[in-house]
Amino acid sequence: MPATDRLYPRHPRGFKPLLGVRIATLALNLPGPAAAARLKALGAEVVKIEPPGGDPMAQMSPALYRAMHKGVPVRTLDLKSQEGQTELQEVLQQSDLLLTAFRPAALKRLGLDRRSLAARYPRLSAVFIFGYPGAQAHLAGHDLTFQAEAGLIDSARLPTTLLADMMGAMLVCEAALAALLQAKLQGQGAQLDIALSDAAGFAAVPRALGMTVAGELLGGALPEYGVYVCADGLVAIAALEPHFQRALAQVAQGTTRRSIARWCKAHSAAQLNALTRQHDLPLWAWTT
User: Fold this and answer.
1) pTM of the model
2) 74 Cβ partners below 8 Å, 6+ apart?
3) pLDDT value at position 98?
4) Alpha-carbon distance 9 to 224, whole Å?
5) In what helix (H) or strand (E) does residue 234 lie, and over which residues does it extend?
6) pLDDT value, residue 3
7) Contact (CB, 8 A) for 209 and 201
8) Contact (CB, 8 A) for 141 and 197
9) Lower CB count within 10 Å: N or C terminus of the chain?
10) Which of 10, 12, 8 is nearest to 40 (CA)?
11) Tell me, what's the pLDDT at 251?
12) Which pLDDT belongs to residue 255?
């Protein structure tokens, strides 16, 4: 499966609960567009508005940009001009939901702050994506800094994925659906904030509670839960529950760290993946 296919929910093809919902998004980079892509997959009509310079993601990862904007009309507007403002107002008059990723000062300059939106478009809901919550919403940040603050980085190596951004996209979807539902029930738009630092913090809760700290339950204390070397790569084993431990003990002839390591080393990734289906084992092996 292409990696970009995982951007979209795997619901039945005809499941379109957001048919008739119109969403305007000004959000650039990753969280906003990823959320908009998922909302569109649920049936919403999405229009993307970009500044004259375009979306930086189009240069950073053209493949990801294309995937997130599949079937989404993109309009270029200079929101600092009167013409751009006029066109934006026309779009918002016809929209049910607005997504933005501007900081508070920029929202105020563009007339997109809470008070201005509520006065002009009382039925319009909005989800504001910020880096940090509340009084810190004006602070600069990126996925890397959000992960660092949440305690998800403990070495000089860069993270393997943009966890805060991707988790943030899911929280944006959650907020969008909640805002739309409340607007439908009450007849008035709802305005919600999503902070990407909170998204990283949400993902970090098990670590913050010590579950994944070195030597703890999911941090290496159990031989049945870890990453081992196999004949041609690596294998992740997560045999936590007793019935999985019994199955692993049977095929690996024991559940000591040494016996599991010896068993893994004696098999290729393909062989191990075949065994997981045969013995109902929670493991995944891959070549390196």
Assistant:
1) 0.93
2) 47, 48, 49, 50
3) 98
4) 31
5) strand 233-238
6) 86
7) no
8) yes
9) N
10) 8
11) 95
12) 87
